[in-house]
Structure formats: C-alpha cells, structure tokens
Specification:
Length: 104
C-alpha cells in the first residue's frame, strides 16, 4: 500500500512540475510574440510614413503645376535665382574640383 501511495504522489508531483514548465514556456512564448508584434507595429508605422512620402513625391512628379498652384495659394513660392549671388570659388582639397559658395 505504501508503494502505491508513493507512486501516486510521485505522479502528482511530476504532473505539477510538468504544468509549471509548460506554463513558463507558454509565458515566454507569449512574451516573444508580443515583442515581435511591437516590432512589426513600429515597422508598419515607418512603412506607412514612407508610403505617404512617396505618394507626395509621385504627385509632384505627375502634376508639378498643381503643387505649384497649391503652394502659391498657401503663400509658398520658390526662391528666385536673382536672390543668389556667387561670392567666391574655393578648390576642394581632395579632388581639385570647384564648388560655389552662395549667399541668399
């Protein structure tokens, strides 16, 4: 009789231990999934932002007159070339090319 009780107690202890291990595994799995979800959500936000930027750029390339009209309605205008003056040419140290220093 003692052997049967001992076996039953060992089985119960093993089952409880197995349940604890499974619970820890499920908890860690849910933690990993939640972190992956957070990363994918952030990536989704970045991709939506980039898509919106590309749609604006596409609209500008397809119809620049429309954007110029809207910009002028908002009081925006491109800077005229008369507002720029060439001050001095400086040689570039590395390649010997020249660049222009301009002021507005």
């Amino acid at each position: 009789m003692k052997i049967r009780v001992r076996r039953i107690l060992q089985l119960i202890a093993a089952a409880v231990l197995l349940l604890l291990v499974l619970e820890a595994g499920v908890y860690n799995w849910r933690l990993v999934l939640s972190m992956r979800y957070r990363n994918l959500t952030e990536l989704n936000r970045q991709l939506i932002w980039k898509r919106d930027e590309l749609q604006v750029e596409r609209a500008a390339l397809l119809n620049p007159e429309r954007l110029q009209r809207i910009g002028s309605e908002l009081g925006l205008a491109p800077v005229s070339l008369e507002r720029f003056t060439v001050l001095r040419l400086y040689p570039v140290v590395s390649g010997g090319e020249q660049y222009v220093c301009m002021e507005q």
